[in-house]
Design a protein that fits this description.
Elements lengths: L1 E4 L5 H13 L3 E6 L4 E6 L8 H4 L4 E5 L19 E2 L6 E2 L3 E7 L6 H14 L3 E3 L17 H14 L2 E5 L3 H10 L2 E4 L7 H8 L4 E5 L6 H13 L5 E5 L17 H8 L4 E3 L1 H5 L2 H14 L3 E5 L17 H17 L3 E2 L15
Parallel strand pairs: 7-8, 7-14, 7-15, 8-9, 9-10, 10-11, 11-12, 12-13
Antiparallel strand pairs: 1-3, 1-4, 2-3, 5-6
The chain binds phosphoenolpyruvate and manganese (II) ion.
C-alpha cells in the first residue's frame, strides 16, 4: 500500500500519517519527491486498514502496489534517487557519472596507494578494493581484513576518494560500515537475506551487485530487503550473469539497465570487469554501458596485473584506464551527462605510502 500525499501537504501532515501507520503495527517509509511525498507501507501481511488513513489531512489517495517490490518501485517514487555522501559533493544517480575504480583486492599499502593515485588523477571519485574476498577456493587469497580497511581509509585521507568495499558477513559489515563510504554486497551474497537486512540498518550507502543467476525481479527484491529496513541509499550494479557463453567469464547484461530504470528509481552502475573477465573487453563494454544509460562504472585497475593476487586478467593497466575515461567522457557528453575531469593530486600525495 502506498499513501500519496497532496503536493501542498505539510511536513506535520506527513509525520502524522507516518505515526498513524506505525500505530497500526506497520512500518512507514516516507519518500519525498519533486512533486509530492509518498509513504510506502510495509510489514502488513494482508490488506492495510485504509479507511482512517484516507481521511487524514494532506492525503491525496491510497494506492495498492501490485508488484512484489514496493520501496524500490517507481510507483512509490517517480523521480530518480540520487545517492549522496556526507561531507562530499559526489553523487550517484544525478547528471554526473559515478566512476569507481581500483584493484580487486587490497594487497598492500604500496599497491593501494600506487593505484589510487592513478585512478584519482584520471577522474575516478570512488576507490574500490576488497579487504574481505569471497573466493571460489578457500586456498586463494582471502583479503587483508581490517588492515585492508585501514589502508583504504588512508587512501581516502590522502586522495579524497570515497571508499567502496565488500562486506561478506555480519562481522565484516560492522567494520566496513565503520571505515567505508559505501558497503558493497557481492554477487554471491545478493540473496543472503540476513546480510541484506543488516545492510539495511547501516548508516552508509549500499552497492548491491546482481547475483550470478538473478532475474531482474530477484535483483530488485534484494534491494527491497535493504530498503525495507530503512536504508534508502541503494545503488544497483550489473556485473554479468552466468550463461552458456564461454568466451567471457560472465555475460554482461546491459539490457538490464533500461529494464531497471523503467521499474525502479534506484541508480544502476555497470561492472564490465567481472562482467567479462577479460581486460580487452572492459573498455568496449564500458563505452556501451555509458551509452545504454548506466549511472556509472566499476572498473578493476592494477599497476602490475600479472602479479595481482586476484582478478589480474580483467584488471586494466592505469594507462588503459586513462584512455577509457577519455572515451566515456565523450559518450557521456552526447547523453547530457558528465564524467568528472582528471583531478590535480596534491604533491604530497604523489609520494608513495609510508
Ligand atoms: C568484486 O567486486 O571484487 C567482486 C567479488 O564482485 P562480484 O561480487 O560481482 O563477483
Ligand atoms: Mn574482482
Amino acid at each position: 500500500m502506498l499513501v500519496v500525499m497532496q503536493a501542498q501537504a505539510t511536513e506535520d501532515q506527513v509525520r502524522a500519517v507516518c505515526e498513524k501507520v506505525e500505530s497500526l503495527g506497520y512500518r512507514a517509509h516516507p519518500m519525498p519527491g519533486a512533486q509530492r511525498t509518498a509513504i510506502g507501507i510495509t510489514g502488513n501481511r494482508g490488506e492495510v486498514e485504509s479507511g482512517t488513513l484516507e481521511e487524514m489531512p494532506g492525503v491525496q489517495e491510497l494506492i495498492r502496489v501490485s508488484k512484489p517490490y514496493k520501496l524500490v518501485s517507481r510507483d512509490v517514487k517517480p523521480d530518480n534517487t540520487v545517492v549522496t555522501f556526507p561531507g562530499s559533493n559526489v553523487t550517484i544517480g544525478g547528471a554526473g557519472l559515478a566512476i569507481v575504480a581500483g584493484p580487486c583486492a587490497i594487497e598492500s599499502r604500496e599497491q593501494a596507494f600506487t593505484i589510487a593515485e592513478r585512478v584519482a588523477r584520471a577522474g575516478a571519485q570512488f576507490f574500490r578494493g576488497g579487504a574481505y574476498k569471497p573466493r571460489t577456493s578457500p586456498y586463494s587469497f582471502q583479503g587483508l581484513g581490517e588492515e585492508g580497511l585501514r589502508i583504504m581509509a588512508d587512501v581516502r585521507d590522502r586522495f579524497g576518494l570515497l571508499i567502496v568495499t565488500e562486506a561478506v558477513d555480519y562481522e565484516s559489515l560492522d567494520l566496513v560500515e565503520k571505515y567505508a563510504d559505501m558497503i558493497q554486497i557481492g554477487a554471491r551474497n545478493m540473496q543472503n537475506f540476513s546480510l541484506l537486512k543488516r545492510a539495511g540498518r547501516a548508516r552508509k550507502a549500499v552497492l548491491l551487485k546482481r547475483g550470478i543467476s538473478a532475474t531482474l525481479e530477484e535483483f530488485l527484491m534484494a534491494a527491497e530487503y535493504v530498503m525495507s529496513e530503512g536504508n534508502y541509499n541503494v545503488v544497483l550494479c550489473e556485473r554479468g550473469v552466468r550463461t552458456f557463453a564461454d568466451h567471457t567469464r560472465n555475460t554482461l547484461d546491459l539490457s538490464v539497465v533500461p529494464a531497471v530504470q523503467r521499474l525502479s528509481h534506484l541508480p544502476i552502475i555497470v561492472d564490465p570487469s567481472h562482467g567479462t573477465g577479460k581486460r580487452n573487453k572492459v573498455t568496449p563494454l564500458s563505452r556501451a554501458a555509458v551509452a545504454v544509460g548506466a549511472d556509472g562504472l566499476m572498473i578493476e585497475v592494477h599497476h602490475d596485473p600479472d602479479r595481482a593476487l586476484s582478478d589480474g586478467m580483467q584488471s586494466l593497466y592505469p594507462d588503459q584506464f586513462d584512455a577509457l575515461m577519455q572515451q566515456v567522457r565523450q559518450i557521456a557528453a552526447v547523453l547530457g551527462r558528465s564524467v568528472s575531469a582528471s583531478i590535480h593530486v596534491p604533491a604530497e600525495a604523489t609520494t608513495s605510502a609510508n
